[in-house]
Amino acid sequence: MDVRIGIQNSPRELAFETSHSAAEVEEAVGAALAGQSALLKLTDDKGTVYVVPAPALAYVEIGSEESRRVGFVA
Question: Matching InterPro entries, A to Z (predicted)?
Answer without folding.
Answer: DUF3107 (IPR021456)
